[in-house]
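Run log // design_07
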């Protein structure tokens, strides 16, 4: 998985490409842990993300918990396949998906 990170003062955009699975989830988790406490908005741009496994869901939930204390997490450009996973798991009820 490729993660391109754009920093705009209090806003960080992480553009993900590929698969968020058991192998790549630690990479995303590391990036989330490195976020400054100054970040008020974290955006996951999932336009080029093809797949999310349960390990990926766990890291997204970790990001949600961290950002609930700092500001907001937004998921944008979620494809139909991944949106279906969010619906089945109930993540649509706890995530801010635009």
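design_07 sequence
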């Amino acid at each position: 998985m490729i993660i391109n990170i754009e920093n705009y003062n209090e806003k960080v955009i992480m553009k993900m490409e590929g698969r968020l699975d058991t192998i790549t989830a630690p990479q995303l988790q590391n990036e989330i842990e490195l976020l400054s406490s100054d970040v008020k908005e974290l955006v996951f741009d999932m336009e080029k993300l093809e797949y999310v496994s349960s390990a990926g869901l766990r890291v997204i939930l970790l990001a949600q918990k961290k950002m609930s204390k700092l500001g907001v997490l937004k998921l944008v450009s979620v494809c139909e396949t991944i949106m279906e996973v969010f619906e089945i798991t109930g993540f649509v009820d706890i995530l801010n998906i635009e």
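The longest helix spans residues 54-70.
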